[in-house]
Specification:
mainly alpha, 44 helices
């Protein structure tokens, strides 16, 4: 018995091990076990572990379609879209009839706005699975993305007809109806979704958001609280509550709520990060950084905390600390895309856009569809003065990440700079679609309409901006701008004052109020307004710059303006607008060397500001120091090779000192492309054609320069008339030549080349 009790278990163990070893050698068994293990991890939301097991299965059999598909599902859960796309594609390569994979891929392509490829999958699915509710739901999303809202609504109705008890279909229909401006129809469907699934957080929150849109804030709060009650462990309803409080202007309640969320979710990264993310969202970088510093101490292994903290350090210009954190991430994972993007941002801020281009290109080479990398690469090209390359990158960013508001914002600004107001309106409309509860898009679209004098449309957008965010100054600022443009000065004054009451530190609001007083010929009121706000916000560099501008232009107080500009620069050495005005005033007072020193000192802090080099170059020209002027313009072009003003000034200087006309021509053409509405750029290019003997082309450009001056309401330029007179003389048109040369002396009797003008007139008279 004793021997039997010893040997029987050993024999059993031996047989068991042999059986297991035999099974483990069978690749089909091994890959299946890895697959099942990964599925168990997936069910427990342990997605990293699931990836390992699915990958193990694929090491055994790289054609194992089920493992590719499950791996795709895991990447979808982790929001790693590129990897999910690749695995779904591999699944379909091996299982073309996997309609679930077709559906997932279609939805992914729709989200990425690759609509043509998405339609190929939805067409196949509609043919093969015409009664699949989710296929019709995906088709509805595709049609909506294509701008066919009526077709999308029809597909959503089809989905409901196929399964009237599916709450998701009613929710999708309601959202489409909202986008189609059918809020009354949406009302019933939002409620139906909640009725079918009262415990659904998305349905409750959507209904609450609808009530918020209609201004029914108590009803909205009720739905959000019910969503919180239905799933206390879900942080999303807490986030919705904060957004609702902010829409109601209850900022302190929003903050208090998030402090409670941090306590309620000590082990949930999304939950405990909400307070810091809230501070970031409202633009309080200081508080956001302080909160994330605490989070980093409490959760040093949370990679998202580390990345967000590094981002905040970048935004607050604590670049050394940000670099240290970011380098730690890159040391562990050298190809981490977020960290490489952070490195590019740091390099941009440190004035090394060339390095930023290299870092960001690395990301794009690995992931061409990374919209955030394209966005920051655009910023790097913009810093290098490559405006067209920058805009191309921003357009790629907006295409790849239609939800990236930052890309839409910079494209709107670029359109405004170019005078493309229709383009600006489109980008603003995109922002509205992305953030209908934010005032930003409405305000930007209003700017476009105001500049085109479409006042009724502008007012509608401004009122919407105020309605969705009554505690945000941006709507009141644009209302003030609208009323100022319409010369409704009392209304403008009231709107700007409301904006300042909401945001006492707003330079735009103060500038608007001061301009309103100046329009009323009341400079003393403008100065009083500036001093009142300086009393409230004593360390505002822009406020002192505004004060200095009015002191000089409206009161002629050169000493007071000088002191104000110096204070502005002292408060913010990066305020190049104040630096520019300070130097201009010093030069106007005859202290040209002081102005040069002001700009050179600023260049120590802002070495990549081409306009500072251009300003110094202009001052050297005023001293007839042509060589130093040339050096400054060339330095500006080293920083920004396509800078149109530097190109224009250097081209004209080359002609003045007898340099290479062909070099001047290339520069002038760059200037003309960059400043198509500039009379000076047209005149410079015309003067070069004159020097090359192409008098007809020169005349066309001089005439264009005069038209542009009239169009832009610039003062008549005696030099353009001088050049045009000479060109007419060369083409045997003496009457026209005499007319323009006489105009020179009438505009400026002390014109620098007056002697030559008089000589030319004498020759024409003989």
């Amino acid at each position: 018995m004793t021997h039997g009790s010893i040997f029987c278990p050993i024999l059993f163990l031996t047989l068991t091990l042999a059986s297991m070893v035999g099974c483990s050698r069978d690749p089909n068994v091994r890959k299946q076990k890895y697959l099942e293990s990964g599925e168990r991890y997936f069910a427990k939301e342990k997605y990293r572990e699931a990836i390992i097991q699915f990958s193990n299965a694929l090491q055994v059999d790289s054609n194992f379609a089920d493992a590719h598909y499950q791996l795709a599902q895991t990447y979808l859960k982790l929001q790693q879209w590129r990897q999910a796309y690749e695995e779904l594609s591999r699944t379909l390569d091996r299982q073309p009839e996997n309609y679930a994979a077709h559906l997932d891929l279609a939805n992914l392509l729709i989200a990425g706005h690759d609509l043509k490829q998405a339609q190929e999958h939805t067409n196949l699915l509609l043919e093969r699975e015409p009664n699949n509710v989710q296929v019709h739901a995906a088709t509805a999303n595709l049609l909506a993305a294509q701008g066919n809202l009526l077709g999308a609504i029809q597909e959503a109705h089809t989905a409901i007809d196929l399964d009237p008890g599916r709450w998701e279909s009613y929710l999708a229909l309601a959202r489409l109806q909202m986008n189609a401006n059918q809020p009354d129809l949406a009302d019933a469907n939002f409620k139906k979704a909640v009725e079918l699934n009262p415990k659904s957080t998305p349905a409750r929150l959507a209904l609450g958001n609808y009530y918020q849109f209609r201004g029914r804030f108590p009803d909205a709060e009720q739905q959000v609280f019910l969503a919180i009650k239905a799933d206390p462990r879900d942080p999303d309803p807490r986030s919705a509550l904060v957004q609702l409080y902010m829409a109601e202007g209850k900022k302190s309640q929003a903050e208090d709520s998030l402090k409670q969320v941090k306590q309620d979710f000590p082990d949930n990264s999304v939950g405990y990060r909400m307070l810091g993310d809230f501070y970031f969202a409202i633009g309080d970088i200081e508080k956001a950084s302080a909160e994330y510093a605490l989070l980093y101490q409490a959760h040093p292994k949370d990679i998202r905390v580390k990345k967000n903290y590094a981002q905040l350090l970048i935004l607050s210009n604590h670049l050394d600390t940000a670099t240290k954190l970011n380098d730690e991430i890159l040391k562990t994972t050298p190809n981490d895309e977020d960290a490489l993007i952070c490195r590019g941002q740091i390099q941009n801020r440190e004035g090394h856009p060339d390095g930023a281009v290299e870092s960001l290109q690395t990301v794009i080479n690995n992931d061409p569809d990374n919209g955030v990398a394209h966005y920051h690469l655009g910023l790097a090209f913009d810093a290098l003065g490559k405006a067209q390359r920058a805009e191309t990158e921003w357009q790629d960013a907006a295409r790849l990440r239609p939800d990236l508001v930052e890309a839409q914002r910079v494209l709107a600004s670029a359109a405004l700079r170019k005078g493309d107001l229709s383009g600006m309106e489109q980008y603003a409309t995109n922002i509205i679609a992305l953030r209908p509860s934010s005032p930003e898009g409405y305000a930007l679209r209003a700017v476009s309409c105001i500049n085109r004098q479409q006042f009724a449309r502008a007012e509608q957008d401004v009122r919407t901006a105020i309605e969705v965010a009554p505690q945000n100054s941006i709507g009141y600022i644009q209302m003030g701008n609208l009323k100022l443009m319409q010369r409704q000065l009392k209304d403008a004054e009231s709107s700007f004052q409301q904006a300042l009451n909401l945001e006492p530190s707003s330079p735009d609001a103060l500038a608007g109020l001061m301009n309103t007083y100046l329009a009323q010929n009341a400079p003393d009121k403008a100065l009083a307004a500036a001093n009142v706000q300086i009393g409230k916000v004593p360390n505002s560099s822009p406020f002192y710059s505004l004060l200095g501008t009015v002191l000089f232009k409206s009161k002629g107080d050169s000493d007071g303006a000088l002191a104000a500009f110096k204070k502005s620069v002292e408060l913010d050495k990066n305020n190049t607008d104040a630096v520019t005005k300070l130097g201009q005033l010093e030069a106007a007072n005859g202290a040209v060397d002081d102005a040069i020193a002001t700009y050179q000192n600023s260049l120590m802090d802002n070495p990549r500001q081409p306009n500072l080099y251009v300003l110094i170059g202009g001052l050297y020209e005023s001293k007839q120091d042509w060589e130093h002027a040339r050096q400054m313009y060339q330095k500006a072009l080293e920083v920004s090779p396509e800078d149109p003003l530097a190109s224009n000034n250097l081209a004209y200087l080359i002609l003045r000192i007898g340099g290479n006309v062909d070099v001047a021509l290339a520069l002038a053409q760059t200037a003309r492309r960059g400043m198509p509405d500039s009379p000076n750029a047209a005149d410079t290019l015309g003067w070069i054609f004159y020097q090359k003997g192409a008098y007809k082309s020169a005349i066309d450009l001089f005439q264009e320069a005069l038209k542009l001056a009239e169009k832009t309401k610039a003062p008549e330029n005696a030099t353009v008339h001088y050049h045009l007179g000479l060109a007419y003389e060369k083409t045997d048109q003496p009457n026209l030549a005499r007319q323009h040369l006489q105009r020179v002396l009438k505009l400026d009797p002390n014109y620098s080349d007056a002697t030559d003008v008089k000589k030319q007139l004498a020759q024409l008279a003989s």
